[in-house]
């Protein structure tokens, strides 16, 4: 076995440290006495996404007390579509200085909500059949605040390019490590945050993270500082998302928005393990290329075996997070190269332009000031 193959093989096991198990939401036998639930949806130009989410909410056995769509300066039919879908529409006020569009929309929705439990969800998400009951049952076991990593429904082939972003986003939350529930998550997932109203008010709501791009990530830490219990789950079987269906341009823009900022917030040991694992995956590719050039022999067999180990491991990890194709894992150098390119773009935008573009807005990088 060559030195490169041996190093790659040793680094292969690191993935099981930072993405060991992804627990999912399940029913716990509760059939009554659910708390009143306010669903709050910040929406900017979401006329194409809202119908699916609203229809999934209205089809649940457990009905929310209210659904509030906060129209964040949309230029399309977001407000009309929301009303047609049975939601109460709140016209968002202009974003004050020091706030982000999403944090301001969420805060306005929370101020208008009446439920004992607040659920903030993104407009491009949806609930599976019985999904709301599953997440509510799971939430009632813990109390406090809970986030769910939306299960990524992949339809078109280019969407598989999100593979490494999904994997490393889940890892960066610190919620699914080998330590399990022994350590609180380092951050929440943006598409879904459920929280008791009292806990929300206790921590100052979204005002406490008003200027953050990754408001959900920092929100978990604010809650933990206030002694509020926090937990994260996977969305498979309960809560899903279709990300960037409008084309590869939107996918690049969306992942560029804050991925470098998110990497900077990842716990150091998870960052080191992730980088080590990615390095091993790259070394496996290099070793395979060299062995192919050298021709048939023991070195080629070993290189193929190591590469296949990474591909099979990736396929298993991705199945927990989304409906990614097996071929995506088998040809993993392609989505890995895409990930590295977009990550570099995001980093450069943050370092030099200090801002990225998203839905017609120029978004400044997170301030160093809290």
Structure characterization notes:
There is one protein chain. With 370 residues, the chain is an alpha/beta fold. The chain folds into two domains: 3-17 and 266-364, no CATH class; 22-247, Spore Coat Polysaccharide Biosynthesis Protein SpsA, Chain A. 46% of the residues lie in helices and 14% in strands. It is built from 15 helices and twelve strands. The protein has helices at residues 3-12, 15-18, 50-58, 78-84, 101-112, 131-142, 163-172, 197-202, 215-225, 248-256, 259-265, 268-294, 298-319, 326-330, 333-353, and strands spanning 37-43, 66-71, 88-91, 117-121, 125-127, 145-149, 151-152, 192-196, 230-234, 239-241, 355-358, 361-364. The strands form three sheets. A seven-stranded mixed sheet has the order 3-2-1-4-8-6-9, with helices on both faces. A hairpin with a 2-residue loop joins strand 11 (355-358) and strand 12.
């Amino acid at each position: 076995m060559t030195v490169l193959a041996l190093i790659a093989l040793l680094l292969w096991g690191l993935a099981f440290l930072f993405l060991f198990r992804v627990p999912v939401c399940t029913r716990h036998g509760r059939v009554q006495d659910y708390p009143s639930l306010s669903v709050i949806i910040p929406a900017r130009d979401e006329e194409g996404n809202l119908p699916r989410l609203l229809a999934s909410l209205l089809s649940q056995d457990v009905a929310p007390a209210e659904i509030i769509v906060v129209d964040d300066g949309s230029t399309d039919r977001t407000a009309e579509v929301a009303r047609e879908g049975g939601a109460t529409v709140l016209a968002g006020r202009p974003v004050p200085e020091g706030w982000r569009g999403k944090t301001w929309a969420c805060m306005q929705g929370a101020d208008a909500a009446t439920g004992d439990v607040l659920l903030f969800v993104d407009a491009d998400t949806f609930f599976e059949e019985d999904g709301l009951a599953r997440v509510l049952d799971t939430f009632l076991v813990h109390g406090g605040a809970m986030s769910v990593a939306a299960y990524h429904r992949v339809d078109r082939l280019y969407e598989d390019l999100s593979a490494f972003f999904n994997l490393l986003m889940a890892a960066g939350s610190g919620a699914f490590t080998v330590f399990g529930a022994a350590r609180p998550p380092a951050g929440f997932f943006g598409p879904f945050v459920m929280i008791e109203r009292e806990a929300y008010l206790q921590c100052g709501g979204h005002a406490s993270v008003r200027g953050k791009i990754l408001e959900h990530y920092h929100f978990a830490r604010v809650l933990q500082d206030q002694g509020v219990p926090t937990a994260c789950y996977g969305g498979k079987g309960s809560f899903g998302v279709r990300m960037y269906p409008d084309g590869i341009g939107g996918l690049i823009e969306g992942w560029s928005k804050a991925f470098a900022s998110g990497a900077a917030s990842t716990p150091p040991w998870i960052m080191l393990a992730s980088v080590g694992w990615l390095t091993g995956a790259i070394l496996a590719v290099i070793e395979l290329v060299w062995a192919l050039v050298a021709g048939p022999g023991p070195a080629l067999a070993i290189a193929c075996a190591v590469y296949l180990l990474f591909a099979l491991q990736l396929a298993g990890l991705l199945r927990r997070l989304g409906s990614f194709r097996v071929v995506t894992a088998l040809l993993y150098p392609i989505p890995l190269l895409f990930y590295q390119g977009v990550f570099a773009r995001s980093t450069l935008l943050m370092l030099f332009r200090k801002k990225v573009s998203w839905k017609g807005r120029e978004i400044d990088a997170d301030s160093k000031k809290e």
